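Q: Can someone sanity-check these two? First one:
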Amino acid sequence: MAYAFQNAAAPERINVVGPSGSGKTTFARELASLLGLPCYEMDGLFWEPGWRECENHEFLRRVEEVTSRSRWVLDGNYSTRTLAIKWKRVQLVVWLDPSPLTTFCTVTARTLRRSFTREELWPGTGNASR
């Protein structure tokens, strides 16, 4: 992955959005690594241990906390609830839009892999595919 920001500083507050299976998390992590920025997953802010949904006010507080920092890459949508918070300080929005076949194949492969590996999806939650 190669990026060039000619005559301008690289953005330091980036939101990567797109449909499920579009590669948001992978892209966001690689971009964050390339730019030396911390990376946060919206799902990681939302999901509590035991697959409990975070209370709306707490979720919005977490999003506000992350986006009030000076540097971040944030992966995920949750647009109707979080758009005003996320994009208040964002410098760059990256919209991933692969074909429906690509997203279908990605979601299917990811689901199968996670169901066999039982990998924890967000550290500290214990949440894994069943």
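And here is the second, same format, sequence then tokens:
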Amino acid sequence: MKGKISIFLAAAACFFCLQSYADGTRPNLALNKPAVCSSFEKANQYNGNKDSVPGLVTDGDKQTRWSSDYFNDADPNLAWIYVDLGSKVDISEVKIFWEAAMAKVFSIEVSDDAKTWTSISDIKGNFLPQTDVKIDKPVSGRYVRINCKERKTQYGYSIFEIEVY
């Protein structure tokens, strides 16, 4: 009986896994994963008196956000944030949910070691609050970085959520 229960549970798990893909939902590989950034905005009156730390881009809550520390950055146009997916995976899509202080020019990059980065998409002229980048041929990487190069506003960069599929 024990073997039949194990087989049943495995079959049920496969059914639910396949069902989630069949109905168009895929797991967000970045959800609740650690994130690292070049800088973050400390608590102040404009961010609800809470630090805008990098982990807020992977918490699944599109009301919380990371923002760069444009007051103190040597060059406020340059900032980055990356997500550690935990292991090397195939990446076919990256979604970025921006606050109004978005990047007009940025690149999406991948890495296996968080030191050497390869650009998989260069975006110029972005004015969309949601950037959805589909990669024609999936790429592999453990880390996904949003490398911001030019601001849309006079403020720093601010991202509600990064999703990786």
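A (reply): Looked at the second one. The chain has one domain: 28-164. The domain at 28-164 is CATH 2.60.120.260 (Jelly Rolls).
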